[in-house]
Amino acid sequence: MNNLGYKIRGDVVIEILSRLPVKTLLRFKCVSKTWFTIIISHSFSQKHLNMALADSNKDRLLIVHESFNSCESFFALFVNGEITLGTNLSFGKKRSRGDIRVTGSCHGLFCIHYDRDDEFLLWNPATREIKDISNSSIPLPRNVDAELYQVGFGFDSNTRDYKVVKLMRLDENCDYHVEVYTLSTNSWRKIEATVPDYVTSSPSMLPTYWNGTYYWWGERDRDVIICFDMCIEQFDMILLPTIEVLPTVVRRFEYHCFTEYNGSLGVIFCFMNCSKTWCELWTMKGKGAEVSWTKQYFIGLFESRLNLRPLMILKSKIILFTNDKNEIIPYDHVTKTMQAPFPDDSLMKMFKSHECLFVTRCQPLWITRAIISYKESLVRI
């Protein structure tokens, strides 16, 4: 019985702690000075992040709503089947009314952009840490068209730093001005970079960050993907794969989305007319102009009287669609079955391993614009 007082080796303690959720670790900082020092250390946060990135069961979902009115923004946390609204998820100071853009997610961090004030902040929803980003040296003109500026967020693996990239031009005939914010210096700097095509913020194709590169949809004479390498700070253009349209499909609407599939970045191409929907999933290999495309699977024609839009793929199996009624519709491409629609606030009840965090604006007029998968982390900002 005297052996019950033995001490666990420090490396064993670290190994055990690195497997625990962030909420538990934040409580455990009070256990002892030793545990406090371990948990707040940079090396431990990196180990904890690496463990989370390797575990697909630790995914969290950020559900982004878009409002059609001018209501003030608020945030909601959905945990264990209950929605909690309140100031505990507010972002500090009162913001002007206007659209919120979730411009990117990386290592459990989100970059939030308030377009009315052209203000940026970084947010770790797991630790509730918030950092206001210093003002850009390129001010955003009042009432500027949203199509004329874009924002991206990601990680530079060479410098181990987080970056925000901002593209802006005054009209369609001007070149882009490009600025990069670096977290370690908390400052913006202009860079000389050529944007190869017209970058759009079309709701039919939301941008994303993946493995050191940020991706936007581009369109002018043709649809392309515009990418920005966070390490070398250069833009490139990716041509889309050739998709043969079925002769029975009249493409009245097109919705596409970036998604993760079996460890690769992919795109769901979705075409529809008034009564039918047809989709293909393609994945990318390589970077920039050297990207090659592989067709993973085809979802045949199925009846749909509602305007379906793909949101993401869960666990490389379930494609989540949304419709005109703002319902979530899961489609299992393995069994080729579509499940009954349900409200998006029921998502966690269906996928219990996914904690859902809503970024939304007030009722009654809103749509589900995106579902973003992310990992909780201890990364400090």
TrEMBL record:
Signal peptide: none annotated. Residues 8-48 form the F-box domain. Pfam families: F-box, FBA_1. PANTHER family: BNACNNG10540D PROTEIN, F-BOX PROTEIN CPR30-LIKE. This is F-box/kelch-repeat protein.
